[in-house]
Amino acid sequence: MQRYLGFIALFLVVAGALAYQFLTDRTEQEGAPSPKVTEAAKPAAPRPASSPETPKPIQAIPQGTGFDFYVLALSWSPTFCQSPDGAGNRDQCGPSRRHGMIVHGLWPQYERGYPEECPTDEPERVSQSLGRQMFDIMPSMGLIGHEWRKHGTCSSLSQQDYFSVTRAAFERIALPASLKSARKETRVAPEALEQQFTAANPGLTGRGMAVTCEGGKLEEVQICLTRDLAFRTCPEIEGNGCRQRSISIPPIPETR
Q: Which InterPro entries does the protein's record reference (predicted)?
C-alpha cells in the first residue's frame, strides 16, 4: 500500500512540474512581443542618367556701339620681323622673341569703310600696367598704343574693355596646326591656308575672312566678327585676299 501511494505521489509531482512548465511557456509566448521582422533594405532606385551638361554660356562680351562689326587682324610675326620696320623692333623681334601669330588689331568696321581716331573720354595713352597684360599677343607698347588711338577709340568701349574684347577675339580663333609649329619655311596657296582656318573654326567661311600677303609672304589673316564675336561674312574684307598662287610662310624663330 505504501509503495502504491509512493507511485501516486511521484506521478503527481511529475504532472505538476509538466503543467507548470506548460503554463510558463504559454505565458511567455502570449506576453512577449512578436519579433519584429525587418525587411531587407530595398536597393536604392538607380538615379536616372544625367543628361549632357548644358554648355556654359560664353562669358558676356562688353558691347561696343557706333559700328557694324569687327575685323580681327592677325599678323604673322616672322614676316614682319624680316621687314625693314621689324628689324629695329626689339620688343617684337629681338633675339629672345619667338612669336608666331599675334594680334595686329581689332578694328570696328562699317558695312562700307571704317571709323578711325574717334573722340573719347578715355585717356589717349595706354598705361604700362594695362599694356603689359597684352604682351603675349600684342608684344609692343607702340603697337598697343597705336591700335587704341586709331581703332579702339571708335569702339565706344573703355580701354580696359577694348583690350579685354581684343583678347577674347584672339582666343576665339583656333590656329591651324601648320601655324602652331611652323619651324621650317613652307609654301602654301592662300586658298589652302584659308581652308585650314575654316576647318579649324566651325562657322567660319571663306566669305568671312581674307589671307593677305606682302612680298610673296604671309602677312595677315583678317577675320570678321560680330560685336559679340560670332563669325560673319564681310565681302569688303574678303576682297583684301592675296592674289598670288603660292606664298611663303617664314618660320617661327628657334630658341637662341
A: RNase_T2-like, RNase_T2-like_sf, RNase_T2_prok
